[in-house]
Amino acid sequence: MNETISYNELEKTNSNNIHPYSEHSKTISTDDYFKQLSENKFYSEFQEYLSNNYSLINKEEIINFISYKPLLTELIKELTVIIRKSFEKNELSMEFIQDPEITDLKYLNIYIHSSEESFNKDWNTLKIINQDIRQLKLLDNSIKKYILVDLW
């Protein structure tokens, strides 16, 4: 039997407010409640992962964008490993970009911080990294179009 919990009860038991809106008459199943709770935990852990590996330029927009494209989490983790093989100590930043003229053009840009002295060498390394990225086998390869890697 599938129990249900009213939103008011859910709100009392969950101080993080799983639902981004306050529709008090909403009823959800306990299965859905625990599924949402685990997803919330996953995104919380992934946000921590991002913060530990990247300077997030516009964190709220980044997290929001990833929440609409959850397969990006897999790609970001893979990219971090690939980038760190060649740029162990370089600072990494991430920024959500939305083209002001083409509203559907949205993506994440990963910046590898580089010095002027090492720019040419780093640029050549970045070209190799981008080849490696193209070769990545993911659950959904079309997700790659939502992330760019560049030097800063």
Keywords:
152 residues; GMP Synthetase, Chain A, domain 3; four-stranded mixed beta sheet; two-stranded antiparallel sheet; 5 helices; 6 strands; globular; disordered N terminus
Structure commentary:
It contains 5 helices and 6 strands; from the N terminus they run E-H-E-H-E-H-H-E-E-H-E. It has 152 residues and is of the alpha/beta class. It has a 4-stranded mixed beta sheet. The chain has a two-stranded antiparallel ribbon with strand order 1-2. Helix 4 (72-86) crosses helix 5. The model is unreliable at 1-25 (pLDDT under 50).
Topology summary:
Layout (H helix, E strand, L loop, with lengths): L3 E3 H7 L13 E3 H24 L1 E2 L2 H10 L3 H15 L5 E7 L7 E7 L6 H17 L11 E5 L1
Parallel strand pairs: 3-4, 5-6
Antiparallel strand pairs: 1-2, 4-5
Mean pLDDT over the full residue set:
79
- Strands across the major sheet, in which order? 3-4-5-6
CATH topology of the largest domain: GMP Synthetase, Chain A, domain 3
CATH architecture of the largest domain: 2-Layer Sandwich
Low-confidence stretches: 1-25
Total strand count, please?
Answer: 6
| Number of helical regions | 5
Task: State the end-to-end distance.
Answer: 56 Å
Task: Kindly state the percentage of residues in helix.
Answer: 40-55%
**CATH top level assignment of the largest domain:** Alpha Beta
Portion in beta strands:
15-25%
Count of separate structural domains: 2
Q: Provide the succession of SSEs.
A: EHEHEHHEEHE
Class by alpha and beta content: alpha/beta
What is the alpha-carbon Rg in Å? Answer: 19 Å
Largest sheet: 4 strands, mixed
> Globular, elongated, flat, extended or rod-shaped: what is the shape?
globular
